[in-house]
Amino acid sequence: MSEKARKTFVEGELTEGKLKKLQRELGDIINPNP
């Protein structure tokens, strides 16, 4: 894997993780767990 491709892949993974975390936080606001 080229350096550029690896960097893009890692950034994509980080972004996906942040999105999942945000979705979970938003879900807690919209639909709080008891």
TrEMBL record:
The lineage of its organism: Bacteria, Bacillati, Bacillota, Clostridia, Eubacteriales. It comes from Sulfobacillus thermosulfidooxidans (strain DSM 9293 / VKM B-1269 / AT-1). One of its GO terms (biological process) is maintenance of CRISPR repeat elements. InterPro entries: CRISPR_associated_Cas2 (IPR021127). This is Uncharacterized protein. Keywords: Antiviral defense, Endonuclease, Hydrolase, Magnesium, Metal-binding, Nuclease. GO terms for molecular function: RNA endonuclease activity.
